[in-house]
Amino acid sequence: MNKKNIPVTQPFLPELNEFIPYLEEIWQNRWLTNNGPFHQRLEGELCDYLGVEYVSLFNNATIALITALQAMRISGEVITTPYSFVATSHSILWNGLEPVFVDIDPHTFNIDAEKIEQAITPRTTAILPVHCYSNPCDVETIQKIADNYGLKVIYDAAHAFNVKYKGESLLKWGDLSILSFHATKVFNTFEGGAIISPDLKTKQRIDHLKNFGITDELTVVAPGINGKMSEINAAFGLVQLKHIDKVMRLRKDIDLRYRASLADVKGITLYHHNMNADSNFSYFPILVEDSYPLSRDELYEKLKAHHILSRRYFYPLISNMPMYRGLPSSQASRLINANEVSSKVLCLPIYHGLEVDEQNYIINLIKEV
C-alpha cells in the first residue's frame, strides 16, 4: 500500500467538464442565488427522484433543522436521541427549546420508540428522531405515540437520502424530514440540505422562513433566517443526481465485501440494515467488543498509524457534552445503550472510490490482530 490517507468517506466529484456548462449558464443568467432556475430545477428533480411531494432546498441541514422546528411552531420540550451529530440538538437549543434525551435501541442505534412515552410531559410538543446510518426508525410506533399525544414528528434524515421503507420513501413519514447534502453525504451539493414537506402550504411557510420571512417586496411576516441555496450548489446537485445510482451501487459492493470478510472476526460486531428498507450504504459502523484484543480507541489509533482514517461516530454522546450533560435526561443511568454503543462504535471507510486493494488492506489490519 502507498502512504496516502484513506478517509472514512469521500465526496463523489463528477468530471469537471460536466460542471462547466452549468457555471457558464449561471454567469450568463447573472442569477446567483435566491430561487434561481437551477434551484427550481433541482427541487423538481429531487421530488421526482425521491418520490416526495415538496422539497425546500437549504444552504445546509443545520439551518434546515432550525427552520423546521420554527415552521411547526414547536415550543417547550422536544424528545430526541443523544446518539447523533450535535447539530440535531443544537437546532433545538437555537429555538429556545429543551432537548429531552431518550435511550437508543442497541441493535438499530435509533431512538428506542418503546421508551418515548415515559419521557412525555405536559411541556412536550415534538419528537425529533434520527434515522441513524440510513436505518429507519420505528416510524409506525413513533407516529402512533405522536397521534395519541398530539405531538409533531420531525425526522433528522441527514443519512437517509433515497431510503425506501416498505417500498415507499422513508422521507414521507412524520410532519417533516430534513436531509443533509454536506460533502460527506451520499448525495451532496458541496454544502446544502433540504426539508421534505407533505403539502404546499407547509412548503410556502418554510420557503418564507428561509428567506428572512419575506413574502413579497414590501412584506415580512416572520423572523426568518437566510437559508437559501446558491445556484452553484444547486447546479452541482443536478450533476450529482445523474450519477447517484452508480455511486450507491459501488457503496453497496463495499458494504457486502466488509460483511463477508469481517463476519467471523471475534470481538467485531457488524451493524445490520433493516430488512424492510433499502439502505443507501452511507456508513459502515462496527462495534469493537471487549473480546477483541484491542479496545475501540486502540484499533482507531492502529488504523490511523497505517493511514486509515476511521471515525468514532458518534462519540462522545451529545448528552455527555458540556452544554447538555447538566440536563436531567442526560444522566448515564437513563442512556445505558447509547453510552455503551458510543464507547464501541467505529465507522470504517466507505465511499465510491475505495479500491478493492485498499479495502482488503483495512480488513487485514483488523483481522491480523
Structure notes:
By secondary structure, the protein is of the alpha/beta class. The chain folds into 2 domains: 217 residues, 3-Layer(aba) Sandwich (Aspartate Aminotransferase, domain 2), CATH 3.40.640; 124 residues, Aspartate Aminotransferase, domain 1, CATH 3.90.1150. It contains 10 helices and 15 strands. Helix 5 links the parallel strand 4 and strand 5. Helix 2 runs parallel beside helix 7, helix 3 packs across helix 6 and helix 7 crosses helix 10. The radius of gyration is 21 Å and the shape is globular.
- The CATH architecture of the largest domain can be named as 3-Layer(aba) Sandwich
> What Rg, in angstroms, do the CA atoms define?
21 Å
> For the largest beta sheet, what order do the strands appear in spatially?
1-9-8-5-4-2-3
Shape: globular
Q: Report on the biggest sheet.
A: 7 strands, mixed
